[in-house]
Design a protein that fits this description.
heterodimer; A: 100 residues; mainly alpha; 0% strand; rod-shaped; B: 206 residues; alpha+beta; hypothetical protein PF0899 fold; 2 domains; 4-stranded mixed β-sheet; 9% strand
Chain lengths: 100, 206
């Protein structure tokens, strides 16, 4: 009686492993299918266009940063210290009125 | 005996479940590797095929932004320099109107005439300017001639009483109008605009 029970248990164990193997094969098979899809997609025009679009967005974001950086610099230029402006005015005036 | 049997049975199932988990886990790992590898390969293919297109596109977009930014900065600098010249022009108007305490227009005028006399180098000089300056010159012509004489310029001045529209300074010429010397304040300022840009930029932005 006990030996039969053990054999039965062993069969159950083998079934669990068999089922796991089937599941594993399914997982790998699906992964292969997905991999093929990934590789197949890259040569499709719409995918390439989407990717170019994506890169374009990135470049636009970088361009915006560049613009902002320049805007900050331009604002800094606009707020020149009064003493510098005065110094420049004095120089020009001196040169205009400098008669040989 | 029955208890021992239960232990063995439980152990058999436990081991089989462990084995099953291991099989699934390895399969998942392999699947992940397969997908990752495909993604890497796809990325390589894609990069190779669209890399030049993306490079051109990036150059275009970033180049335009750089150019726009540089223009913005140049404009800000140009505006600042123009502001300096505008203020100087206003100051020159005040000087010519006698509203500037630091600069005496009469002294400046004398220097401008002296320079004209030196450049034209004739015994007689005809001078014109704006209405206000002409009025001053008409009233002080002898005094100016004397001052010029004292500085080594013996020259007879004639005033051309047709005023020009200018801030101040003079236009001088000889009788035959073959030699004309423009010594107007705005003309002098205009001449300096280009040559002084560098120095002004250095003062303002360095």
């Amino acid at each position: 009686m006990s030996l039969e029970e053990l054999i039965e248990e062993e069969r159950r164990a083998m079934k669990i492993i068999e089922e796991a193997k089937i599941e594993a094969e399914k997982i790998i098979s699906e992964a292969k299918k997905k991999a093929e899809e990934i590789l197949g997609k890259v040569t499709k025009r719409e995918f390439i266009e989407a990717r170019v679009k994506e890169e374009e967005k990135k470049a636009e974001a970088e361009a915006e940063e560049i613009r902002k950086k320049h805007e900050v610099e331009a604002e800094k230029i606009k707020s020149i210290a009064e003493e510098r402006i005065q110094k420049a005015i004095e120089l020009v005036l001196m040169e205009v009125l400098k008669v040989e | 005996m029955s208890e021992a049997l239960e232990v063995i049975k439980s152990e058999i199932i436990k081991r089989s479940r462990e084995e099953a988990e291991k099989i699934i886990s390895e399969a998942k790992k392999k699947a992940e590797e397969t997908i990752n590898s495909a993604e890497r390969k796809a990325e390589e293919i894609l990069a190779k095929s669209i890399k030049p297109e993306i490079a051109v596109m990036r150059k275009r977009i970033l180049g335009a932004a750089q150019l726009e930014g540089r223009k913005m900065i140049l404009k800000a600098k140009d505006d600042a320099i123009s502001k300096v010249f505008s203020i100087v022009e206003e100051k020159l108007k005040k000087i010519a109107n006698g509203e500037d305490k630091e600069h005496k227009y009469e002294d400046i005028l004398l220097k401008l005439i002296k320079e004209a006399a030196s450049k034209i180098d004739e015994k007689e000089l005809i001078i014109t300017s704006n209405e206000q300056t002409l009025a001053y010159l008409n009233n002080n012509i002898k005094e100016i001639e004397n001052k010029l004489k004292n500085e080594g310029f013996e020259v007879k001045l004639k005033i051309e009483n047709s005023p020009c529209n200018c801030i101040g300074g003079i236009i001088a010429y000889n009788n035959s109008k073959t030699k004309i010397f423009y010594n107007l304040l705005e003309g002098r300022l205009l001449k300096l605009k280009e040559s002084l840009r560098g120095k002004i930029a250095e003062i303002l932005f360095s």
